[in-house]
Amino acid sequence: MEGVKELLVILISSSLVSNVVLSQFLGLCPFLGVSRKVKTAAGMGTAVIFVITLASAVAGVINQYVLIRFQVQYLDTIVFILVIAALVQFVEMFLRKAMPSLYKALGVYLPLITTNCAVLGVAINNEQAEYGILTGTVNGFATAVGFTIAIVILAGLREKMEHNDIPESFRGMPTVLLTAGLMAIAFCGFAGLL
Amino acid sequence: MNKAGERIYNGLVKENPTFVLMLGMCPTLAVTTSAMNGLGMGLTTMAVLALSNLFISLLRKIIPNRVRIPAFIVIIASFVTAVQLLLEGYLPSLNKSLGVYIPLIVVNCIILGRAESYAYSNPPLPSLFDGIGMGLGFSFALTCIGAFRELLGAGKLFGLAVMPDSFEPVRIFAQAPGAFFVLAALVALQNYVKNRRKKAGKPYEKIGSGCSEDCMNCSEKGCTKRFYDGQAAKQEASDEEELTIGSSRRARAKADELEVVDLDKGGI
């Protein structure tokens, strides 16, 4: 029972309270870049959930059975980045062969995610917090859900604002950043949940 | 010597990674809660950037073109690990306040970008100075943004109280939302300069063409433009196509399937 409670706390805190983009600034590139339409934002979000959950599970296993076992934790950064890059490539190939329908939905977003700092960030966060494999995977999933929530909301807001009359210098990115800042303030409110 | 000076001027002013190119925005936003953190992050990145540039340039004739990106990543990750261990040993407080953002230097697009666009095609010494110049530019920018946020958010500068007692700190600037606001103002300023240059007929293409713009103009700097730009456009186009001429698309999908089967047979 205690374990379930802990997992629930991680789920809420990683997805809402310390949101990966809005309070940790990880994964800003896709957050700002692929949030023009709700549909693409949702696709990106799904792909991120998929990859981060998988990557944090794999990184957890490697951390437990390779890095800790052979006492080479100082190699974590190198090992994680290589594993993540290889994993994304592999997932892409596997999906293309085995599940073409899923590949069609997520395919374009997969290569982008290799360079997404959120994936590496989650793996390193899990390691530093000394989460086990299950806890780490749940944390990865929750973080990615937080990313999806944020990017879909931002895309919705951007669709609404598209034709507004904005001062010339503030058109484009500055408005998006201001919106993200206001969202960050709103997400601060979730701190009361825990 | 001129070459070295020119590279440093280029990194610090002409192609300042933060103020002009807008690269590496994740650490810029995350660690600039105070001037000291900004400076620490900037100098750490500079060390990694200069060393990785030097080594990539030395190895540029050995690394095959097709596996250059993984090779760059391994080199960069090794230096990041070394720098992280040094920080842990000698500056534990800075290491603690920068936390996860130190290992994340690996995925900072400035570093991979310079490796791809400069170090891989230039001799070692200019590459080293290019790294130092870019690193100095990054440090300068981070320190400025950090100082601004610290001044407004806490009324301090490098940890020293400088504002009069009557000043009420605007705490939000030292927190996460403040980072977005400061960056918004910065990009707006950049747009303003860009628009003015455009009207005056001066060159402006370099300004604000980095990741924060929408990660689409990164290709020259080694990011993932080809994916964001090309593939996202392709996806959108194919989505629309599906709406209008669904049947022909289905036929094409079938053809693809057949091709896959053929390939499999060939493999056997």
Describe the structure.
The complex is a heterodimer of chains A (194) and B (268). With 194 residues, chain A is mostly helical. In chain A, helix 1 runs parallel beside helix 8 (133-161) and helix 4 packs across helix 7. The two termini of chain A are 18 Å apart. Chain A has one domain (23-187). The mean pLDDT of chain A is 86. Chain A has helices at residues 2-17, 28-33, 38-68, 76-98, 100-106, 110-114, 117-128, 133-161, 173-188. Chain A has nine helices and no strands. Helix content of chain B is 69%, strand content 1%. A two-stranded antiparallel sheet of chain B has the order 1-2. Chain B has helices at residues 2-14, 25-31, 35-58, 68-90, 92-98, 109-117, 124-154, 176-200, 211-214, 225-244, 246-267; strands at 156-157, 160-161. Chain B is mostly helical and 268 residues long. Chain B is globular, with a radius of gyration of 23 Å. Chain B has two domains: 2-197, no CATH class; 225-267. In chain B, helix 3 packs across helix 4 and helix 4 packs across helix 5 (92-98). The model of chain B is unreliable at 209-236 and 239-268 (pLDDT under 50). The N and C termini of chain B lie far apart (61 Å). In chain B, 47% of the residues are buried. In chain B, a hairpin with a 2-residue loop joins strand 1 and strand 2. The chains are: A mainly alpha (194), B mainly alpha (268).
